[in-house]
Amino acid sequence: MSAPARPPGRPRASVAKRLSAVALMALSLAIVCSAVQFGVYSDIGPGPGLFPMVLGALLCLLTVAWLTLPQSGDEGEAEPAPAGGPARAAAVAAIVLFAIVAMPLLGFALTAFAVAAAGMRAVGGQGWRATLAVAAAAGAGSAYLFQKLLEVPLPLSAIPGLRLLGV
To answer: Torsion over CA of 36, 38, 41 and 47, rounded to 10 degrees?
Structure first.
């Protein structure tokens, strides 16, 4: 008797997973190397390469975990796609495009508020009360963190009335 045959698409999925992991590993190492060239730390504090280096290192670690840890689809059974997956992906893409277009007009704080609110409603399906509370905290909190605590200049609104308010 012969051994049971593997599902037809299984070997390709394994090869695709390994190739994807190798590509992500190469990308993460390239990010770390270029971040180090920017300077990770200087006499006055963190340099411009610190955050990209941390993200590149995290991407590298997550890639290793993805490649080595068993996953639910590894036994040959594919998990069904979540309901509304393509619509949610389209919503995320639309939110990102909105942020790119709206940032110069609305400024950082209002754009952060709108992005958080749109994400919570479109992707998370949260109610209005929670959405508005979290989005307000995200917009105001991130603006305070970057402008006041980290002293990062953020774009202000191009609308004169909002600019007068410092938004």
So the answer is: -140
